[in-house]
Hints:
The structure holds two protein chains of two kinds.
Chain A: E1 2-8, E2 15-21, E3 24-28, E4 30-32, H1 45-50, E5 55-58, H2 60-65, H3 69-75, H4 78-82, E6 87-90, H5 94-100, E7 105-106, E8 111-114, E9 121-124, H6 126-136, E10 140-142, H7 155-178, E11 185-190, H8 196-208, E12 215-218, H9 227-240, E13 247-249, H10 255-263, E14 268-270, H11 273-279, E15 282-283, E16 290-291, H12 311-314, H13 319-325, H14 330-356, H15 360-371, E17 377-378, H16 379-386, E18 401-402
Parallel strand pairs in A: 4-14, 5-6, 6-10, 10-11, 11-12, 12-13, 13-14, 17-18
Antiparallel strand pairs in A: 1-2, 2-3, 7-8, 8-9, 15-16
Helix pairs in contact in A: 6-7, 7-8, 8-9, 9-16, 10-14, 11-14, 14-15
Chain B: E1 2-6, E2 18-22, E3 25-29, H1 40-45, E4 51-55, H2 67-73, H3 80-85, E5 93-97, E6 115-119, E7 122-126, H4 128-138, E8 142-144, H5 158-181, E9 191-194, H6 201-212, H7 217-223, E10 237-241, H8 272-287, E11 296-299, H9 304-314, E12 318-320, H10 322-330, E13 333-335, H11 344-349, E14 368-370, E15 387-388, E16 399-400, H12 424-432, H13 437-461, H14 476-489, H15 494-511, H16 515-526, H17 530-539, H18 545-553
Parallel strand pairs in B: 3-4, 3-12, 4-5, 5-8, 8-9, 9-10, 10-11, 11-12, 15-16
Antiparallel strand pairs in B: 1-2, 6-7, 13-14
Helix pairs in contact in B: 2-4, 5-6, 6-8, 8-9, 9-14, 10-13, 12-13, 15-16
Subunit structure (chain A): Heterodimer of a catalytic subunit and an accessory subunit.
GO molecular function, one term (chain A): metal ion binding
Subcellular location (chain A): Cytoplasm
Amino acid sequence: MQFEILAKCKTTRARVxxxxxxxxxxxxxTFMPVATQAAIKxxxxxxxxxxxxxxxxxNTYHLNLRPxxxxxxxxxxxxxxxxxxKNLLTDSGGFQLVSLSKFTKITxxxxxxxxxxxxxxxxxxxxxxxxxxxxxxxxxxxxxxxVVPSLLTGPRVSEAMERSVRWLDRCIAYHQKSGQDKTxxxxxxxxxxxxxxxxxxxxxxxxxxxxxxxxxxxGGLSGGEAKDTFWRVVEYxxxxxxxxxxxxxxGVGFAEDLLVCVALGIDMADCVFPTRTARFGVALTFDxxxxxxxxxxxxxxxxxxxxxxxxxxxxxxxxxxxxxxxxEETVAAHAVTQHNIVFxxxxxxxxxxxxxxxxxxxxxxTFFARYFKGAGYPxxxxxxxxxxxxxxxxxxxxxxxxxxxxxKWEYAEP
Amino acid sequence: MVLRRENLAAPTGSQPITIEIDTxxxxxxxxxxxxxxxxxxxxxxxxxxxxxxxxxxxxLERTPPVPTLQHQQDPTDPKPLHTFLGLPPETHIMSLSLxxxxxxxxxxxNGDKSISAWCVRGVRKVSPSSFLQYxxxxxxxxxxxxADTPYTAPPFSQRRIHKNVxxxxxxxxxxxxxxxxxxxxxxxxxxxxxxxxxxVPKARGAFSYLIREALTGREAVELIxxxxxxxxDGVWGYLMxxxxxxxxxxxxxxxxxxxxxxxxxxxxxxxxxxxxxGIVDLLQNSLKTLPVSKPRIAITTQSPHEVLRLVSExxxxxxxxxxxxxxxxxKGIGFDxxxxxxxxxxxxxxxxxxxxxxxxxxxxxxxxHNFFASTYAHxxxxxxxxxxxxxxxxxxxxxxxxxxxxxxxxxxxxxxxxDPPHTRAYIHHLLQTHEMSAYALLESHNAAVVASFFxxxxxxxxxxxxxxxxxxxxxxxxxxxxxxNFISYYALPYSLLDEATHDWDSVxxxxxxxxxxxxxxxxAITEGKESDLEASIALGGSQTLGxxxxxxxxxxxxxxxLDPAPNVDVDTDVI
Lengths: 414, 575
């Protein structure tokens, strides 16, 4: 893996870099769309490529279930299986063991769960997780970590953090012994819950291993914690992670969250939000999300965003037609999915261009003013960006600030 | 045969548009105005014939119907419906009908002045004249005259058939009057006439006679000055709805029940040949007195076998095959058949890596593959053995399938080379995991195979005895020979469709709409046992884990469902 920083923002901690993996270069910061079961829902690999996407995510837990490792090995890896020629990242499967199975027990050896194939108690060890990810063949693979709910407090959090460090060592050892470390890059996952002391101890240990990993992820967030806590943890971690490795914040997908994370020094993020919300008829725009299902869009013959280069908007597909199709025809889901993926890419490429041109603070200023127009600036965004030297309220007369934790949403008019 | 449409309904002064469609051919059916599962970038890549049919009834949900607003917004747009639906008028002929005969469900009876149409908000009564007003605002290239087709199960009473003939003729007169007396040339839209008479040969013949008969009475007073001697003078082509002609025709109840496996009965096709013979007879009765020069369109054909008989025995030019092609795609079937059917010699020389479809006990071969079947889980071949993929390029015997699955190509780089084809194993995986990408791949593939099937029909018809292609008389002898070859080589699609429907249904139940609720209900039942299960895992195994397996297979309830589940099956992923 080659990681080359091309520009750094002079105000914030944002940077533009080029990460070159076995399947080509990816410009960072970037948002990674999620193809849980080896397909971005409703789209083909060629459509994703046509949208200009160079890095997507598959879920190890799901691929291990279906089609199964044997099929992936026969196919020659997940890239060939799904016809994807660009870069791919897989998670460790640990998160789904916790989120999807009530029966998982964590032991020092690994995660014990009931095999969905046979019902037999099965152990997912760090070595096993890496081995599965080797078969899948993604360009970036994640360590198995001990995941606890974000809101959990108490001794279990520190235990999980410490175990994640020990499991990282086992992942590194297995990965290096296998020889796969030439083509696949192992990322460490910083844990420690919402407790900055625990995060600090985790960072200290993991950064010591920086020569053995391709990059670092910030895990254990986006689990319902207050946004004010979220950004402080990201800020704390990003500041302490080494400059010369990519930093990946897991489970982040709202545009405002992405830009705050970029300003705090994050390079990569993933979330099912843009693609899932598309299937429910919500189109993302620089003026905030549009809920196409609302009756107010039923006779709007304009595209979602006339300036958008996505195939949906470029073809002139109107909000009225999308409203007519949404929840009735899968095409509406596909069309809005294409749009939302391009929207995420535009938010991030806009950030990259701004950092390269040294106008990132202005970009933030413009983005937030437009996106939250009428809804008010979220306080946590204002404070997070102030912590890295950008005041998005500067020059705004009587700014409205809201203490909301949630994302901006479009509701029916009363 | 070449069907030429020159500047139909184009405003004066605009560039003439000529779209040639070689017939026999398949038209593209739309559902709610779009090709099912295919986004606009995929539709643009499609090589199928440029005739698109749009049933209007789904737009009746709003008043005024939304497509009519396109014309209001820009009255200078000569093709507002093309614009609304994103199909270029230069490449697509668009026909418009009020009802969607492929969406047959039981409806309240039509009146003398109104037709019952269906949209998701319920039944709408539409008069022929108001439908025509919608058509004027949409400006399709061809409009289907409203027909008094009953959406109830046959047999139809004599009285009903009489009404069907009378009303259809009266409504045609009304439509002719409005279109011909219209001042705007853009409103002079060619008319496709659904041939009435239902299942009674005599009634069908009588309807055709009625429209060829010299006008009398009030109609004569109104229509003769507009240049008509008979009603048929104003008719551009004929439409034949085959659904109501089948004895098995049973419209769905207005609210369709959720399909469940135990409700799916195997389709009876024992006497399919007789049924098609009956349909052929009915259509021949309609057409024998009508001019051969006008285009003939058949709606709701159910197999390639039926298409071949309708081409050779009825002379149908354009076919709607969506009721089997799209339905098959939705049920996980990828087509793998050609016309002419493969010869024995070709079979042995064909690529042995890619398996051919199942051979039935009677020795006939399926027209496609049921990719739900577990035999495809490890099959890394392209979809169809009878076609090559884009990456392989041209072959001597087999043609390349140009669909998005067999000839995938990114549009990011211009003139990009083809990617390897999507494999059977991948499609099997997508179907098993309820991923919608499978439907897009199969919809595109099936349409491409159908297009190639029709190209084969045209090639055979234009092949002279010496084997060279000619523009002369169709080669009926060769064609008839190939039709009987095809019919004895390929099995009817019904067994395949039944099997696929069964597999589709089980995946639908475990991962489709409502699956999360079913999983929760199952949870509630096993709630009491869960603590035991947990304990047994901690202890390292027990026999009760079998129940746990079932539960896990059902997919655990998703977290973070931001919205209530919509009607499309898009609500079942988990993070």
